Amino acid sequence: MVDDINTRSSIPLPTDAGTAMPTPAEEAPPKAGRFITGNEGYATLVWRRFRRSIMGMIGLTLVTLLLVVSIFADFFAPMDPNRAELPFAPPDVIAFQTPQDTFSLIPYVYPIGDSGEFDPITFQPISGIDKTNPTPTSLFVSGNAYKILWFIPSNIHFFGSTDGRPIHLLGTDKFGRDILSRGIVGSRISLMIALAVVALTTVVGTLVGITSGYLGGRTDAWVQRFVEFVLAFPQLPLYLALTSLIPVTAPSNIFLSFVIAVMAVLGWAQLSREVRSKTLALARIEYVRAAIAVGSSDIRIITRHILPNVLSHIIVAVTLAIPSVVLLESFLGFLGFAVKPPLISWGLMLQDTGTFSVIGSYPWILSPVIFVLITVFAFNALGDGLRDAIDPY
After folding, report:
1. pTM of this prediction?
2. Domain segments of the chain as ranges
3. What are the E-state strand segments in the chain?
4. In terms of pLDDT, which residue wins out, 178 or 312?
């Protein structure tokens, strides 16, 4: 009994009967950690997860640079893409070195020419760097005239020679046109085709998929049979057959519009099936059933409840579909069924690589492949980063 009294007397009593003793957790101030999100929205959370992806940030940077370069292609192109010089000229060498072998802050371009020597076995002339006549270069130099955004006249280029002499950092094609300048200008057409096709397929595929999955019943069955009918076509022969219907003498804008329409007509079906599967799952969620029970219209339910939840999948699908369209346009352009001259695209530039003899003698003709690889890698990296950020589980 004495021990109980001593034990109870050792327990501290509150100083105020109406105030409870604070716990250690209440006494310690809250620590600001990276797991406290506060009132962050969904877009902020996605961006915070996306920033942790190294490949995603690299893809975002490259995509941004590609879009900027394609919009201001004439400014970044060092030469006129239609100017003819020496056919199949090898790439020039750029070095921060003067003809006297001293370091220079201003880069010089050294052309590749005959060294005056011959191969002892094949007796072919040996080419080498011509250091006797270098071309000084600089940023923001004057060159051929063009129009910024198609209506502002200008002649300033981001990079070029200061004395007006031509430079060919990636060599020239069979007509003597600069490959680097044509690749930069051709990005405008190639990316425009890809973005236009993906925009059309996204709109059509999303509308068809949401409508089919939300309405269900016979409407869903008939729509899915039509989608399967579109997917059953072998696309490549159909591309070649449809694009060959346009005569060669047709204007370039009409031919380009027809190519975009053909790609869009045959490319929306797969996205519609993916959106339909998402819509079928969302249509059974409690808040959608509650909206139906209170009498909300179908348009309101689709636009306010279903579409925002499907939008994350659509964004990822768009970023992953653009590389496929770029590859398809390059392949069709290589076969001569995508873009016709005087327009410039990466696929049209690859037509010069049609023979092995040309590739073996002039390997720099394959340079347009570099633009395609960079674009495909950039959009795939961006799509993977967005997919992990939007759906981390």
Report:
1. 0.79
2. 59-71+181-390, 89-175
3. 93-97, 103-110, 112-118, 125-129, 135-148, 152-161
4. 178
